[in-house]
Amino acid sequence: MHIYAIVGAGGFGREVMPVAREMLAQRSTEPYRLVFVDDGDITGPVNGHDVLTTEAFFALDASQRYFNVAIGSGATRELVAQRMIDKGAQPFQIRALAQSVVLDGNQIGEGAVLCPFTTITSNAKIGRFFQSNIYSYVAHDCEIGDFVTFAPGVKCNGSVRIEDHAYIGTGAVIKQGTPQRPIVIGKGAIVGMGAVVNKSVAPGETVVGNPAKPLRKLGAGS
């Protein structure tokens, strides 16, 4: 039997679980079991699915183990994913099959989560363990790094480059760039809820507002 795990039984994990369940019901050709893995204080079952510790997950008798990580922090997601891979589990992609759109020429890395009502248009390159929450989109010719998080309703327009571990908050809008001058969201940057980004954001910077400005500058009264 194949065992599939959603790592993290918190809010996002509980949103992702039914998407994974529906996808596996349509696509899996092998007997399988779908569980949560959580080493915190959550005890199962949660919404009809057992909650196992990491140790218990790897103690199960399984022909193959698969996982995805439903944790918003890209840095934590990377640590958890590497630990699961080191122990022999394989990442699997989660996608709302009937309610998400992926058009032509896209490259999407392992471990992505495409929630309901998300769209990837054309010729985007997306890295490992990308999370696209409900009603978000990635437009043409974008480059998205590893462990990037889109909260609900993110609008990422064409020719944008988002580097590893960036977090884009709910309802944020990133203006379209050009192939010669893409808008760049630097590594580990945070784009605040509802921000409108019309120019590049430095690595590690937090920007908020319309137009988006660095939080540190706003705090200084500028």
Task: Provide a brief overview of the structure.
Belongs to the transferase hexapeptide repeat family. The protein is of the alpha/beta class and 222 residues long. It is built from 4 helices and 24 strands.
What would your notes on this structure say?
- Belongs to the transferase hexapeptide repeat family.
- This is Acetyltransferase.
- It is a single chain.
- α1 links the parallel β1 (2-7) and β2 (32-37).
- The longest helix has 17 residues, at 11-27.
- By secondary structure, the protein is α/β, with parallel strands linked by helices.
- It is globular, with a radius of gyration of 18 Å.
- The mean pLDDT is 95.
- The chain has an 8-stranded mixed beta sheet with strand order 6-9-12-15-18-21-23-24. Strands 7-10-13-16-19-22 form a 6-stranded parallel beta sheet, with no helix packed on it. The chain has a 5-stranded parallel beta sheet with strand order 3-2-1-4-5, with helices on both faces.
- It has helices at 11-27, 54-59, 74-86, 215-219, and strands spanning 2-7, 32-37, 51-52, 64-69, 90-91, 94-95, 101-102, 107-108, 113-114, 119-120, 125-126, 131-132, 137-138, 143-144, 149-150, 155-156, 160-162, 167-168, 173-174, 183-185, 190-191, 196-197, 206-208, 213-214.
- It is 18% helix and 28% strand.
